[in-house]
Amino acid sequence: AALTAVDGTVLRAVPRMAWAPAGGPGTAIKLHLHFNVFDQIPEAWPITPGNVSESKVMAQTVKPGTLNVADRAYGHDFGLLARLRADGIDLVFRLFNNLVLTPVGPDRPLTEEDRRAGVVWDRRVRLGGQGDGPIFRVVRVEANGDVFHLVTTREDLSAGLISLIYRQRWQIELYFKWIKMILNCRHWLAESPAGVQIQIYCVLIASLLLMLWTGQRPNKRMVESLQWYWMGMANEEDLVTLLERAGCAKKS
Asked: What is the DSSP secondary structure assignment for residue 21, as one 8-state letter?
């Protein structure tokens, strides 16, 4: 199954964009992204006002046959966990550390490889303190002074591999940073819902095209070369030369 990192990121809006209320004061846009970890490309990107629930959007956009990894914003929604499992959609989500976890049956044995990955225990638990929460497999990992409780539907994978899968969630955080900082997606060319969508779509399409052409995530020098081309200060031949100097063009 494809490994998909799921998360949302908030983009600042201006007060005039009253159609996009933030989760708190002010206005904001939220990009809900499904990111293919292996191919390093976005697969789905719903765009909503900043106060829209990430877990609700995920429930509407997640694809069958994928293994989804996500942080605590999704793991606290027991209804979402149960719905995904019922639909045959696999997951590795982090839980809040203060969540009540009641063991159901004996712990699963750990291998030496699991322990080297920071796994402390691997067991089936009932989620929540009310006695009626769903039962899931949870892996506890301790690393660098932090504690991670990882809930998963995958019974066939080792605890160490579950830990490794969750570490891949950071790929989506790096992608968010890249599209915000490198492609400078912080100034709105239009302030309507349609205008915002077009701008974000253009950024994502540009990132896909650049990665398809270069075979890697473009760097700052490459984006600067494109800006010269867009401003009319370089033609297509100049652009290819600039990209080759930046070390990003595919070798023929």
From this structure: B
